[in-house]
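User: I'm writing a tutorial on reading structure tokens. Could you give me a worked example: one chain, its sequence, then its tokens, then a sentence or two explaining what the tokens reveal?
Assistant: Sure. Here is the example chain.
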Amino acid sequence: MQAAQIGGVVPREMKYGVVCEPFLPSNPFGKVDNPDHRKWFCCCHDECKQVYVFKSKNRSSIYDHCRSTHAIAPDTSAGRGLGNTRRQETVSKATVALEKLGPNRLADINKTRAIIRMARPFHCVENEAEREDSHPDWTPCSAETMRKNVGEMFLEGSKITKQKIQNIVSSACLPPLRLNADLWTSKITKLKYLGVRVFWMHKGQLVTSMLACSVYSPPTEDPHWPEKLPSDWLLEYIIAVLGWYEIQPEDVAGSTSDAGSDCKRALDRRGRVCYKWEWEWCWPHATNTALTAAFGTQKDPKACTNK
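And here are its predicted structure tokens:
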């Protein structure tokens, strides 16, 4: 049976990765005239995605990568059986993705994932060194294009998160979610940011999902509510984030934050009155405060009372 053609390549599964080789329409058996065109996509780990070009009988570069990076020896009988079952799902997913998207689009998506995972600035894709070290099938793009890619991937990922949360809410008898919100200011840009995260228990395990992390710049006044406080603006933003994921305030049992005045007032006082949320002080912040008071430590050595 002739293999399916995918953007000029024919993928086939291996134990530790996926091999792509040129597809020759004139040859019904898909044989390769130039073996140097074969590419091997590593699937030993979800976040590796390393690529090697290899000849049909010389796979030393692949073996060296597996051995040094993943502690696997595929060129030995013991190594070939090590964790093979565990990697089959990863290999299968990579093959399906390659068949569906093609190597160029898959490389673009993996590059975008790396930008998100490592929190790299968008303009790094315009750096020549960055481009040279990237996937050989990735087409260099501008920072604005990468910004759009990240936005598209966020929207796709948020659909999965939204469905996951809705499944938890619909199957719970009591409000299953706990909310965390935090404000901080960048020391470089001086911009204020808001982060919103929810937690829930699933089969005895604590699960969390980041709902938003964005610039926070509310208006200074509301003509319809002259006495509106900063904490009221903050709670309004938080409710808007929950609403974007179709989470009702009644689905939230309680909240936690540091003791910052805006966060505490929004979640403890306003949240308790409006939505009956139970607020808890963030334990890491509480512990830090207790230790600071006990040992007299301060960031400024001059203010330190423990000498």
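What the tokens reveal: The CA atoms of residues 161 and 167 lie 10 Å apart. Strands lie at 9-13, 17-22, 38-42, 51-54, 177-185, 192-202, 205-215, 252-257, 278-281.
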